[in-house]
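Thread: quick sanity check before group meeting

JM: Hey all, I'm pulling together slides for Thursday and realized we never actually wrote out the predicted structure for the chain we discussed last week. Dropping the sequence here so it's in one place. If anyone has concerns about the input, flag it before I start.
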Amino acid sequence: MNKPDLTWLKIAALVEGTSLIALVFIAVPFKRLLDMPILVKIIGPVHGALFLLFISALVFHFIKGRIDGHLTGIGALASLIPFGTYIYKVRPQHNPPFRARMCASPQTPVLGAPEAVIL
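JM (edit): ok, ran it. Output follows.
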């Protein structure tokens, strides 16, 4: 079985993690210490969009069966912690997706066969 391509999920994790670090360690200190809220107004919405993109990528790969529910949950939690997505290791699910296991069954009827009998 070929390993699923998780390149976009890995890129989304790194970009989302970088935006969170920029927000927490650059924009918020500038707002609090130097009274410059403009960075939060710029980086905040960008981080929000990247966060939604990463969560969407996690859900997409979960639905496609490329990662399991455990890795999806850990990825969602890692996205809430600074440096969490850097530590989060995305690895493909070793079991084929449920649909692939069902379709590979020898009892699967042939498509288009009107009178398929499953023994």
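AS: nice. Confidence is low (pLDDT under 50) at residues 95-106, 108-119. The longest helix spans residues 7-34.
JM: adding both to the slides.
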